[in-house]
Specification:
- The protein is mostly helical and about 50 residues long.
- The protein has one helix and no strands.
Length: about 50
């Protein structure tokens, strides 16, 4: 019983850390996308 309980706890911790990492990645993704979009816009304006 104890073994399965610790395994479940370990799995729960893993899921929590994974979800936190995913959330952070999703929060950081728009920033990098915006920076890239701004760079592309600058390049487009220069070429025109």
């Amino acid at each position: 019983m104890a073994l399965s309980k610790t395994r479940l706890n370990f799995f729960d911790q893993g899921v929590k850390s994974l979800s936190i990492n995913l959330l952070g990645y999703l929060l950081l993704l728009p920033r990098t996308f915006n920076l890239r979009a701004k760079r592309f816009v600058k390049v487009d304006f220069k070429t025109q």
